[in-house]
Amino acid sequence: MALKALDIYKLLPKKNCKECGDPTCLTFAMKLAGGKADVDLCPYLDDEAKAVLGATTRPPIRRVKIGVGERAFGVGEEFVLYRHEKTFYHPPGILFKVSDTQSADEITQVTIRVRDESFTRVGTKLQFNGIAIENASGSKESFARAVATVEESADLPLVLISENPEALALALVQVGTYRPLIHAATQDNYKAMCALAKKHGCPMVIKADSLEGLVSLVKDCAAEGIQKLVIDVSPQTLGDFLVKSTAARQLAITRKVPELGYPVFLDTTKTGMQDAAIALGIVKYASVIVTNPLSPAQTKAALTLRQNIYTDPQKPIQMNPGLYRIGSPGKDAPVLMTVNFSLTFFTLEGYLESTRIPCFMLIVDTEGLSVLTSVAAGKLNETLVRDSLKKFGVENEVTHRNLIIPGYAAPLSGRIEEATGWKVMVGPRDAAEIGEYLYTEWKK
C-alpha cells in the first residue's frame, strides 16, 4: 500500500536543506505521497530508505517513453482504475502495422500517411503515433530492409516486432539511436533481448501467457538491469484481453503486485474484430496499440474516442479568452460575445464561417462552463464582459458599440449595457440560427 505523507516524512533526513527544491522535508514528503516528486531528488537518503520509498511513492504504472524528437510519446504513469476517480493522463500510442513481406512502396505509403495525416477537433491536432514493423518473413535481412525503408520516409516512433534477437540486432543498426520499442522478450529469449535493450537504450515489451509469467519476467529483466518495460498479456480473444488487462491494472494500482505496474501492449491484428479491439484497448487499458492501417472513417472514430477518454472529466476543455477574427473583419464588423467552453466556441465558429460574414468573436473566461451554466452559476456577468472588452481592446477594433450576446445570456443584457456603455443585441439561443440572425438583424 502507498505510504502517507507523515509515514514518508519519518524516513526522510529532516534536514530541511532545500536541495530537493522544496522548502521543508514535510513539503517534499507530501509531494512524494502524491506521486509528484522523485525520491532521487533527496541527496541524503540511504539505499534502504530509497528502496522503501521508491516502491511506494512512484506512480503505480511506470512511465515509458517511445522514440525521440517531437513525435516521441510517453505512456503509463497512471494512478486510477476508473477515469472519473481522477483522470487518465497519457493517451495510448496508436501505430500502423507493416510487414517485411510488403514491398518498399507499400511500406512507404503507410509511413507517409502516418507522418502527414492529421485532423483538428476542438482545437487539438489528432494524429497517429508511429509505425510497427513485423518480421513476418523470418528473414533478418528483409526485416532490416523494411526498417530502413520506414526510416527513409519519416522520423517516427517505431515498434520492432520479432522474437529473434539476431533479426532485431540487425534492424537496430538502422534505428537504435531513435529508441524504438522492441517486441518481445519471452522466458526463452529474455537475456539476449535485455542485452539489446541495454545496448541501445530501448524500451522493451515482455510477453507471457499469464500474469504470473509476466511477474516472473519483470523480475528476470530487472536482474538484467532493464526496467523500461511494456507488458503484453498475450490475449487469445478480446474477452481475454479485458480480463487480463483489468486485473493487471487493478493489481498495479493497489500496489498488491507492483511488478505489473507497466504500460500494456495490444496488437489488435491478433485478436480479430479490429475496430472493437481498438476501442477496448483505448478504454481498458492499452498504452501501445498496433493496428492495420485504418480507413478515414475508422481513423476519426479511433482518434476521437482516444481524445474523449483522455480528456479530464473534471475539467471542461477550454479556449483561451481573447478576441478572435472570423475572416478579415473591418471596423464595421459585428462583435459576438460568448464563453470559453470549447464546444461552444467551435460550434459558433463553424456557423459563423459558413455565413461568410467577417466578424469578431469575444471569448470571455467562464472557466470552461457553457453559456447557460455560467449564467446560472454567476460566472458570466456584466463585470466580466466589461473587463474583457477593455482587456482585449475591442473598442479599438470597431467604430460601433454594438455587442451581440448569446440568447441564453438575455437576462444580463440590461446590466451589460449599464456596465459597458455598449448597446446589447440578444442573439439566438441556437448557434445554427446565427447566420439568419446576422443577415436579418445586423445588416438591416
How would you explain this protein's 3D organization?
With 444 residues, this protein is an alpha/beta fold. The chain folds into three domains: 5-57, 3-methyladenine DNA Glycosylase II, Chain A, domain 3; 64-309, TIM Barrel (Alpha-Beta Barrel), CATH 3.20.20; 322-442, Rossmann fold (3-Layer(aba) Sandwich), CATH 3.40.50.11600. The protein is 41% helix and 17% strand. The protein is built from 17 helices and 17 strands. The strands form five sheets. It has an eight-stranded parallel beta barrel with strand order 3-6-7-8-9-10-11-12, surrounded by five helices. The N and C termini lie far apart (69 Å). The mean pLDDT is 92.
What order do the helices and strands come in, and which of them pair?
Elements: H1 5-11, H2 25-33, H3 47-57, E1 64-66, E2 73-75, E3 93-99, H4 104-116, E4 119-121, E5 124-126, E6 130-134, H5 140-153, E7 158-161, H6 165-175, E8 181-185, H7 190-200, E9 204-207, H8 211-223, E10 229-232, H9 238-253, E11 264-267, H10 274-283, E12 286-291, H11 296-309, E13 322-326, E14 335-339, H12 342-355, E15 359-364, H13 371-377, H14 382-391, H15 394-397, E16 402-405, H16 413-420, E17 423-426, H17 434-442
Parallel strand pairs: 3-6, 3-12, 6-7, 7-8, 8-9, 9-10, 10-11, 11-12, 14-15, 16-17
Antiparallel strand pairs: 1-2, 4-5, 13-15
Helix pairs in contact: 1-2, 4-5, 5-6, 6-7, 10-11, 14-16
